[in-house]
Amino acid sequence: MAERPLTDRLDETVNTILARGDATAALRDPELAPLARVAADLRHYPSPDFKARLRAQFERTTTMTAAVSTTTAIREGFTTVTPYIRVREPGLVDFLAQVFDVQETFSGRGGGGGMHREVRIGDSMVMIGEGGAAGEGGVMPIRPVGFHVFVKDVDATFKRAIAAGATSLGEPADRHYGERAGFVRDPFGNHWYIATSLGPQSLATALRTVTPVLHLKGAAEYVDFLTRALGAVEEMRAAEPSGELRYCRVRVGDAAIELGEGEPMPGSFMLYVGDPDALYQQAIAAGAKSVMPLSDQPYGRVGGVEDTVGNQWFFSRPVTASS
Amino acid sequence: MTPTTEDDRLLVEAAQADPARFVEVYERYVDRIYAFVSRRTENRAAAEDITSQVFEQALRAIGHFEWRGVPVSAWLFRIASNALADHWRERARDAHEAPPDVPDSRDLEDIDRRIALYQHVERLPDLQRQVIRMRFVEEKSIRDVAAALDRSEGAVKQLQLRALENLRKSMGGHG
């Protein structure tokens, strides 16, 4: 019987390699064997589309990340994202001082006539605005927000919070995610999810003392928005079988933000970035609306946007000694 | 060509100072990481997914990468190895082999050989390169390739044979 042409034998071998990753039969054919070896290696030939797509993804992400993070160390002790809590009356700083390891680092009259205060809780900064005209129809609304706080002893901290006027939202207990945690609502309505790490599966190693927690509807879509608007990088997620996002952690510059599906509790955030103009435009392009056009203020260049779920992001490049 | 440790150091420092330069890290190492990962995954989609994860993790971690003279490739292979181990754990019920480790010297030779082969594909005459891509990347049948290129099936089989012969010759001592 005449031997089948090499083109057909080779094609049959290629089909077998593609279907089963197996070229052993062809290796017995001395004319076919060297070609079969090449074909077997080509089975893993990378798709040019895949490489180009991934490259474009990194170009997009890193360009956005660069705009966020090039000058995160502008103000010593701050990270890229600092939560800003507005309250109608003084008292929140006193509450925090009674509960956590707090140091007030700045206090001064704000633009709206109220007090602007900055406190350090552990290794994290929080800004607090007390009173003032802004918020009553002004830029930054008065509204409660949520925080995940790591402490050495959750039970003692929880007791201090209750004694200082907080309401329990959940007694301290060992949680399945590697934390002993208790939850309180402070007298101003803010939620504090107080936690002590129980071991390596805890999130504590990836988080600073205080991390903002965003509750919202449509969390999965919102993560996409944060990626496009702020160059956020998703670090972990836990989704329900339905696809609903129960928990997600993203990083914006060098700061973590936690979020998940829940009753909306939007917040306001100050972002220290190298190029506030670029971030502002990027957030607008991603679907946010302007609440404060960019302008040069005595304390630095600043502008702000409100996103689709009500969170406000203020982009600032503050004036420093070297600028 | 394997980058020198000095090239590596400069590349890492550039990416740490300016995240936009991370794309250069990606360009330099994507073929090696993909070549490593693709031999240890069940299909192309899994290999692409894990390669993507490796560079995403590397981008997040590069700010904390401390230069101690260890090649960037070793660091990326370690990330890839962990990602593969996670992938295997998820498939634990049907996996019987030990989780993969970082590549040894024999694996590295194999990776270099395959990267050289992929580069030779890029230098093939247009039609031959198109046939290789359609057959091996898109996994099209000879009939579909023939339709796409407006050639007879016999002609496409000839192109496939010539392409593989050219690649075998180009590989020379590597083959």
Biggest beta sheet summary of chain B: none
From the spread of the alpha carbons, the general shape of chain A counts as elongated
Q: What's the CATH first level of the largest domain in chain B?
A: Mainly Alpha
The oligomeric status of these chains comes to heterodimer
Notable features of this structure?
heterodimer, A: 323 residues, alpha+beta, 2,3-Dihydroxybiphenyl 1,2-Dioxygenase, domain 1, eight-stranded mixed sheet, 35% strand, B: mainly alpha, Rna Polymerase Sigma Factor, Chain: A, elongated
Describe this structure in words.
The complex is a heterodimer of chains A (323) and B (175). Chain A has helices at residues 6-20, 33-42, 48-69, 92-99, 154-163, 219-230, 276-285; strands spanning 81-87, 102-109, 115-121, 124-130, 146-150, 167-174, 179-185, 191-197, 210-216, 233-239, 245-252, 255-261, 268-272, 289-297, 300-306, 312-318. In chain A, strand 14 and strand 15 form a beta hairpin. Chain A is α+β, with helices and mostly antiparallel strands. Chain A has a single domain (56-318), classed as Roll (2,3-Dihydroxybiphenyl 1,2-Dioxygenase, domain 1), CATH 3.10.180.10. The mean pLDDT of chain A is 86. With 175 residues, chain B is mainly α. Chain B folds into two domains: 1-102, RNA polymerase sigma factor, region 2, helix turn helix motif (Rna Polymerase Sigma Factor, Chain: A, Orthogonal Bundle), CATH 1.10.1740; 123-175, Winged helix-like DNA-binding domain superfamily/Winged helix DNA-binding domain (Arc Repressor Mutant, subunit A), CATH 1.10.10. Chain B has eight helices and no strands. The chains are: A alpha+beta (323), B mainly alpha (175). The interface between A and B is large, with 38 and 47 residues.
